[in-house]
């Protein structure tokens, strides 16, 4: 991935590079700092961005996602990647492969990996800017898994040892990709991500607004019912009537029950499922 440079600092320096340095990159910094501390490493870990958003704070949804995960980086201020910063880093970690390509064109002698490359996976974490906190939590947890999977490789790189890359010709063929989710599955996934956010921060979420968004999302299932025996319309109406009766954020037990009901909506539903919903207590 490039030759290592000679660095003035004896302590390994890792720079995680994002686009604006207000979302994914600082989240990855907080996650990696915790991992390094847990494993007894004293690495210097910081972030920067390839586009100029200097002095901007962390995005609010990113801050809230970190809080849910027991982390904070409240003093973070975005900065642009400079030549001096790049040259002091022992390892540059790009949050996605597109940013990795930009870095390699700028700094061909630097040691550069994307998060997916470190983990040995063909995966880029999407930028959740503008999305709800549920998406930020989902992608933050995925970044944490990639960092854990790539931690041994990071340790090898920072120790000065060569990383043996697997030859594509000798590698095992990748498993076939999973089938794409159906439209119903995508709608239900969006609804359950919203439930994640409600359950994670019940005192922060505006329940009436969240309930309205959840009901609107569930209503998207109705036109997706194509079989005569599929009672999805009645099922969604029963769910939304139950939600109407919830004047405050539901308890954890009720959210769990609601999650199960939403997951059931990924497939056609029958009379027994509708009848069960209609018996739910207020």
TrEMBL record:
Q: Which stretches does the entry tag as region Disordered?
A: 164-184
| Gene3D superfamilies in UniProt | 3.40.50.2300
Q: List the Pfam families hit by this protein, alphabetically.
A: LMWPc (PF01451)
Q: SMART domains in the record, alphabetically?
A: LMWPc (SM00226)
Q: Which GO terms describe its molecular function?
A: protein tyrosine phosphatase activity
EC no. given is: 3.1.3.48
Known InterPro entries for this protein?
LMW_PTPase (IPR050438), Ptyr_pPase (IPR023485), Ptyr_pPase_sf (IPR036196)
Q: Compositional bias of type Pro residues: which residue ranges?
A: 171-182
* Chain ranges of the Phosphotyrosine protein phosphatase I domain: 12-153
Database matches in PANTHER family? LOW MOLECULAR WEIGHT PHOSPHOTYROSINE PROTEIN PHOSPHATASE, LOW MOLECULAR WEIGHT PROTEIN TYROSINE PHOSPHATASE
Name of the featured protein: protein-tyrosine-phosphatase
């Amino acid at each position: 991935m490039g030759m290592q440079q000679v660095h003035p600092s004896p302590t390994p320096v890792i720079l995680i590079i994002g686009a604006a340095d207000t979302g994914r990159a600082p989240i990855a910094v907080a996650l990696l700092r915790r991992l390094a501390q847990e494993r007894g490493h004293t690495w210097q870990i910081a972030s920067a961005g390839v586009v100029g958003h200097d002095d901007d704070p962390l995005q609010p949804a990113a801050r809230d996602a970190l809080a849910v995960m027991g982390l904070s980086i409240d003093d973070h201020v975005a900065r642009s990647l400079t030549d001096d910063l790049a040259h002091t880093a022992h390892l540059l970690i790009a949050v996605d492969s597109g940013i990795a390509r930009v870095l390699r064109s700028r700094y061909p002698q630097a040691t550069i990996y994307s998060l997916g490359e470190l983990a040995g996976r063909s995966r880029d974490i999407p930028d959740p800017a503008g999305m709800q906190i549920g998406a930020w939590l989902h992608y933050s947890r995925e970044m944490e898994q990639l960092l854990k999977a790539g931690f041994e490789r990071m340790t090898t790189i920072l120790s000065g040892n060569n990383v043996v890359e697997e030859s594509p010709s000798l590698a095992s063929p990748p498993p076939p990709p999973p089938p794409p989710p159906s439209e119903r599955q995508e709608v239900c996934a969006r609804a359950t991500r919203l439930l994640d956010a409600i359950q994670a921060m019940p005192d922060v979420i505006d329940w009436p607004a969240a309930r309205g968004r959840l009901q609107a999302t569930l209503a998207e299932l109705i036109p997706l019912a194509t079989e005569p025996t599929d009672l999805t319309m009645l099922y969604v109406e029963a769910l939304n009537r139950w939600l109407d009766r919830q004047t405050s954020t539901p308890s954890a037990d009720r959210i769990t029950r609601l999650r199960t009901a939403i997951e059931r909506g990924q497939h056609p539903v029958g009379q027994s499922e509708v009848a069960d919903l209609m018996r739910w207590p207020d």
